[in-house]
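Lab notebook: predicted structure, single chain.

Context: the supervisor wants predicted structures on file for every construct in the current expression panel, including those that have not yet been purified. This is the next one on the list. No modifications to the sequence; it matches the entry in the shared construct table.
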Amino acid sequence: MYRTTRVRYHLQALKRISRTYVPNMGEIMSDSVRWTLTVSRDTDITLRTFLARSGLKKGDLSKFVEDAVHWRLMKLNIAEARARNSHLTPGEVSQAVDQALREVRAERTA
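Prediction complete. Output recorded below exactly as produced.
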């Protein structure tokens, strides 16, 4: 019973993560805000050189930073989920993921 309750909790957490932390990039850029960032001169030169070599324009810096932030958030959330689920066996995690996928797919087709 105790383990079943924890698996249900983790299923709910998986659903929240899938809806919250994987946004549509097109939606984000249409509702943008301004940030002021400070980076080292070396990072600035390296990144701008990379963007120029790749044929990207000045405005693409924002897209690059946003993409990097999303990847970093995803990695942090994955690490957090792994730590939170470290007490579960691989089979229990697999079952929880399969169940969450079935429920989300059922919601989308309903």
